Amino acid sequence: MRAISLLVGFLALAVTAVAQSTRAPEYQVKAAFLYNFAKFVEWPSAALESSTPFRICVLGQDPFGDALSNIVQGKSISGHSILSMQVQSAAAARSCHVLFLSQSDPETLKQGLERLRDLPILTVGESADFLPLGGMINFVLEQDRVRFEINLAAAERHHLKLSSKLLAVARVVNVGGGVN
Amino acid sequence: MPMLFSRFAAALVCLLFSSLAVLAQNPDLSQASLEELMNIQVYSASKYLQSSEAAPSLVTVVTADQIQKYGYRTLADILRSVGGFYVTNDRHDSSLGMRGFGPLDDSNARVLVLLDGHRLNDPIHNGTNIGTDFLLDVDLIERVEIIRGPSSSLYGTNAFLGVLNIITKRGAQLQGLELSSEAGSFNTYKGRISFGQQFQPFELLLSGSYYTSRGQNLFFPEFNSPVTHNGIAVNADDDTSRSFFGELAFNKFILRAGYLYREKGDPTAANFTVFNDSGNRGFDLNRTLDLQYQNTFHGDWDAMFRVYHDSSRVDNFYWWRETDATPPLLSYDNSRGAWWGGEMKVTHTFLLNHRITGGMEWRDNVREDQLNYDIAPNVLCNDDRRSSWLTAVYGQDEFSITPKLLLNLGARFDYYSTVGSTTNPRLALIYRPQEKTTVKILYGTAFRAPTAYELHYRSWTLKGNPALRPETIRSTEVVVERTLTSQLRFAASGYLNGMHNLIGEAIDPVDELIVFRNNENVLSRGLQLEANARWPRGWEGRASYNLQRTTDRATGQVLTNSPLHLAKLGVIVPVVGNKLFASLDSWYMSRRRTLSGASLGGFAVFNANLLSRNLGRHAEVSAGLYNLFDKNYADPAAEEHLEGALQQDGRNFRVKHTFHF
Questions:
Q1: A140 vs B: CB within 8 A
Q2: Of A21, A73, A85, the CB nearest to B299
Q3: For chain A, which terminal residue's Cβ has fewer other Cβ atoms within 10 angstroms, N or C?
Q4: Per-residue confidence (pLDDT) for residue A2, from 0 to 100
Q5: Which residue of B has its CA nearest to A80?
Q6: Could you check whether the bond before residue B123 is cis, i.e. omega within 30 degrees of 0?
Q7: How far apart are CA B653 and CA B20, in angstroms?
């Protein structure tokens, strides 16, 4: 009897696992995106000295839990080891290469983005006013799938080169508001 | 019970196998391409993450940044600043009190301390040292997560009043060599050398610390007689420790090793020893080795495995006299523990809204030896050698009934070779009516199994009791958390704790020895208010207040060392941009009763610290004044002391310099 219930349990679990194989928690997927962005963006050489680690930072409340550090652990970006870290202020984010700004009120976002203006930092956010405030890449959810919008003017201002592969799958937005 | 156990185990094996099946089928999420990522259907996991809002408890986090800015020197310093906690020091150990329950001699056995998830409480005394005798240098702490309330449903024994999870820094955060030196009052010096680096695919952290303090010449009015040096203990308060911590990460494996050796003189003449004799001293040795594997597999399967081996050793030397006229005799007290064990845990989301965790744990206390004898003349009192084991299974379901309502249900079954089985449930209903407000209704039970010391210790005055049962707590709590703006957060909590069969001391009428019995029942009621603020440009503040009444059920009397009011206040002010920070940290405690029934007055203590960062090339300087206004205050003393209360440190300072290469 027990053997049967075990078998049923095992099968049920296995089936659930297979059925769910194309599903994942939102922030695990977003963490994987952050790592992927880093692969398709070119930083000015001055911003990435040879012995320093590549820093992916989260400013404000950290929605990732362990997801981000799990993704980047043991990985590298053009020979640089990756470090994921939480930073408390825009000032502390100056040495970051990728900066995720979690959902917070527009005023805090605006101040943060203004302080990092012109620095070679890829800023990534997830709120409606992120790009108009000067952010570079914004996550949006469409039918439970993660999509992202890119503000090219902001990328140029931060001296970052975005690969065509990244632009091909993104929605490119003019800061004026229109969609290409 | 074995039937139930095997079924639990089978279910777990099932879970593990299916997680491995998933691993075999699906690539790592981090290997997925942009296109693959765009095709993954996501669901909001924010409610599943143990962010403080979804946690079935009122949680406080203290970060490395705050530890630096407030100038905390030990884990005890950190906890003094946390709402609901207070620390009692007897010039040998620091004992933690929480929410009005502050037993004076329990070696912190009612709080579980985890180092990166690894249990530090030992099986002989069940305790963890939190002062200068803590295993880890506070400079290596990344953050401390303070989880209030019983958590035996996940962690088993010791998760009685709360859990402290200490997260260490990683090698990549250091990126090189760090040297730190500090000096303070009472001839106190400390040095640390740390190295951290990432060598793909390895990550390494190595750190060693040395601490020494000559201590003070202290006056104890209870010994104010010409026979006992007019109550002045000279050169008997010294404190020396050395510690090592190493961490090597490779892919998803992390190997951690810790070592601490500490020697402390006892100026208080505890255990009725000869006063003003620097030969009264204690030695502690702790070692830990832990290998952990943690991974998130595609399809959202989290798995964690852990194996470890720990050991502890305590040596105490006591000089005592039969009468004032006889020459002093030397007694020796020793305990040695060694234990190893393992744990595995799997978490997965089923049917979109059931986040299910299953786990099992076993621990083999291969050595729980206690020895007590007089050295000269040589008379053996106790030579007790034993071992014990335990095993446990647990499960938890975080059920998102609606996006606004989360039900967290968990239970754990423990089996001890010494005291049999115990099952502990927890139930939490977490309701978020709006994004900025969270209401939590929490219920749970927890236990603490009697220790080898309480079961089998023996000295000339005290004996263990092999018939002891686990002590239990039943807790009900309501928490309301509210975020006013992104900078300002409030929390309020009301709690009711019933503690049963607490292990306390009694006199055995047969031989008149002190004996341990399950003889105390305690009722604790209280209210906690907390506010946390963080403004741009580095301003920070926190305040907390506890009103609590903790009474003995038999007498209705408030317990010893239980303040009615407890308040904390802390502020960090950026003085010069991100280069210079000033902080003020203070705590107030209302009057407490001592064992003799006397009342110790309430007091407030203020600490101030200045921290200068980004000086030149990666240098950091910190200067702190502790007990700024030189407040004269005392903590209640435990049974083994002749003193009713022990005077605490007056104004003292520390300067610290850290250099990063």
A1: no
A2: A21
A3: N
A4: 53
A5: B200
A6: no
A7: 55
Contacts A40 to B, Cβ<8 Å = 34
Residues of A (114-133) whose Cβ lies below 8 Å from B:
none
Sign, CA torsion B425/B109/B293/B171: positive
Is the C-alpha dihedral spanning B315, B316, B322, B325 positive or negative? positive
Predicted confidence (pLDDT) at residue B346 exceeds the cutoff of 80: yes
Q: What one-character DSSP code corresponds to residue B337?
A: E
What is the model's pLDDT at position B299? Answer: 67
- The DSSP line for B87-155 is EEE-SS-EEEEETTB--SSSTTTTEEEEETTEE---TTT-----STT-SS-GGGEEEEEEEES--HHHH
Query: What does the pLDDT look like over B502-551, one tens digit per residue?
Result: 998 888 999 888 899 999 999 999 999 999 998 777 789 999 999 999 99
Per DSSP, B454 falls in state: H
B2-25 and A2-19 helices cross at what angle (nearest 10)? 30
Q: What is the mean pLDDT of residues A12-34?
A: 65
**Best residue of B35, B46, B351 to probe chain A, by most A CBs closer than 10 Å:** B46
Please give the Cα distance from B655 to B648 (Å, whole number): 20
Residue to substitute from B165, B486, B537, interface A, most A β-carbons within 10 A: B486
Q: Residue A104 — very low, low, confident or very high, per pLDDT cuts 50/70/90?
A: low
pLDDT at B52: 67
Q: Pull the structure tokens for residue B57.
A: 């408890």
Determine, for residues A17 and B173 on separate chains, whether the beta-carbon distance falls below 8 Å: no
pLDDT digits (tens, 9 = 90+) for A89-99: 787 888 899 99
> How far is the first Cα of chain B from the last one, in angstroms, to the nearest whole number?
58
Q: Which residue in B has a C-alpha nearest to residue A2's C-alpha?
A: B7
pLDDT band at B43 (very low <50, low <70, confident <90, very high): low
pLDDT digits (tens, 9 = 90+) for B240-288: 999 999 999 998 899 999 999 999 999 999 888 999 988 999 999 999 9
C-beta of residue B581 within 8 angstroms of C-beta of residue B574 = yes
Is A13 close to B249, i.e. CB distance below 8 A? Answer: no
Chain B residues touching residue A35 (CB < 8 angstroms) = 30
**Average pLDDT for chain B:** 89
Confidence band of B377 (pLDDT split at 50, 70, 90): confident
Give the residue-averaged pLDDT of B459-474: 92
C-alpha dihedral, B4 to B10 to B15 to B17, nearest 10°: 170
Per-residue DSSP letter, A119: S
Residue of B13, B29, B204, B484 best to disrupt the A interface, most CBs of A under 10 A: B29
- For residues B602 and B624, is the Cβ–Cβ distance under 8 A? no
Question: Does the pLDDT value for residue A36 go beyond 80?
Answer: yes
Give me the residues of B, 365-424, that contact A with CB < 8 A: none
- pLDDT value of residue B333: 93
CB contact under 8 A, B536 and A89: yes
Asked if the model's pLDDT at residue B164 lies above 70, the reply is: yes
Question: Rounded to an integer, what distance in angstroms lies between the CA atom of residue A128 and that of residue A109?
Answer: 11
Better-scored residue on pLDDT, B333 or B355: B333
Q: Which candidate, B254, B255, B240, B174, places its Cα nearest to that of B207? A: B174
CA separation for the pair B485, B612 (Å, rounded): 29
Q: Is A15 on the interface with B (CB under 8 A)?
A: no
- In chain A, % helix, strand, coil (3-state, to 5) comes to 40, 25, 35
Are A144 and B41 in contact by the 8 Å Cβ rule? The answer is: yes
